[in-house]
Design a protein that fits this description.
Ribosomal Protein S5, domain 2, binds adenosine-5'-triphosphate, alpha+beta, single chain, four-stranded antiparallel sheet, Alpha-Beta Plaits, 2 domains
Length: 311
């Protein structure tokens, strides 16, 4: 029997993120660290279009350089689709087209956003009937930042960053991002942090095993006050990222001397995120950084997590 319905295409979108606060706990015996983070989803998104297909494939386009991205089973989007198919008992595949706007290996969770949007798109395409909780459970299996890309907004992440609780945030914060023309490996930045802590064990307090997010950070988010938030932005991965790529320090200084309230390394870097007071300051900073030949993008936060888009 043939059906008259044309094969559908499902379009899903998921956001990149910034960690406005990130504390990394002591190195655990399993080689990982617990973290305490406050995430904000920002208006730099990944668009995933899922087409019916017999097997699994992915192709990329977008505003960031996608030429070196693996498209085999190591790609997080393929992993997300195959994991969902296995869970749902789905026997066919999917052809994924991904439009990337979040820099690759940039510390903004682009791969995680691809995985979250792929879960949602394939779930709708295949009609799996899984619950939101089931999808979130799969997201957790795919990576620490994938659950947040799924839920979006503003949230506190504990454990590996995947134990989420929503946080209140008023209004919109204005961000300006300076992208680097290279990527940084998250595990390598964590290793550098461990080496740094070993080297300075005599003169710094030992890292907490279970760090927490400072209450003042949540207050600043709740108040929607960029000046207050700028005072408390914090990233434990900044020092090791700057140790590995010292020239990023000059980028932070350039932004801070051109009107940014504060600049920080985003996640494990190398993207530098600047918080600004309002749109006018964002535009001025964008012009100043672009004049220094940096690749600059403006965004606001918080925004939605993964969602379906009707084209
Ligand atoms: P995180 O901070 O979550 O580790 P990130 O934002 O720094 O990640 P991503 O762009 O998510 O960086 O990519 C991290 C690594 O994952 C890269 O080395 C990249 O090659 C690999 N990767 C696998 N799938 C993807 C994907 N769909 N998009 C981007 N990178 C991917």
């Amino acid at each position: 029997m043939t059906t008259s319905a044309a094969p559908r295409v499902v379009h899903a979108r998921a956001p990149g993120k910034i960690n406005v606060f990130l504390k990394v706990g002591a190195l655990l015996e399993d080689g990982y660290h617990d973290v305490a983070t406050a995430y904000q989803a920002v208006s730099l998104a990944e668009d995933v279009r899922a087409h019916p297909a017999d097997d699994f494939s992915v192709s990329f386009s977008g505003t960031v350089d996608v030429s070196n991205l693996a498209t085999d089973g190591s790609n997080l989007a393929i992993k997300a689709a195959t994991l969902l198919a296995r869970k749902a008992g789905y026997r066919s595949g999917v052809r994924l087209e991904i439009e990337k706007h979040v820099p690759i290996a940039g510390g903004m969770g682009g791969g995680s956003a691809d995985a979250a949007a792929t879960l949602l798109a394939c779930d709708a395409l295949w009609g799996t009937d899984l619950s939101r909780e089931d999808l979130l459970e799969l997201a957790t299996q795919l990576g620490s930042d994938v659950p947040f890309a799924f839920t979006g907004g503003t949230a506190v992440g504990m454990g590996r960053g995947d134990q989420l609780s929503p946080a209140l945030a008023k209004g919109q914060f204005q961000w300006v991002f300076a992208f680097a023309d290279f990527g940084m490996s998250t595990p390598e930045v964590y290793r550098e942090l461990d080496r740094h802590r070993d080297r300075h064990s005599q003169d710094i307090f030992p890292a907490e095993v279970q760090p927490h997010v400072d209450a003042i950070v949540l207050q600043a988010l709740r108040a929607g006050d960029p000046h207050m938030l700028a005072e408390v932005l914090h990233n434990d991965l900044q020092a090791p990222a700057l140790h590995l790529e010292p020239e990023l320090g000059a980028v932070i200084e350039l932004g801070e001397s051109n009107g940014a309230l504060a600049g920080m390394i985003s996640g494990s870097g190398p993207t530098v995120a600047f918080l600004v007071a309002d749109l006018d300051h964002a535009l001025e900073l964008q012009i100043a950084l672009s004049a220094a030949r940096l690749n600059v993008v403006r965004a606001t936060g918080p925004v939605h997590g993964a969602r379906l888009i009707s084209d």
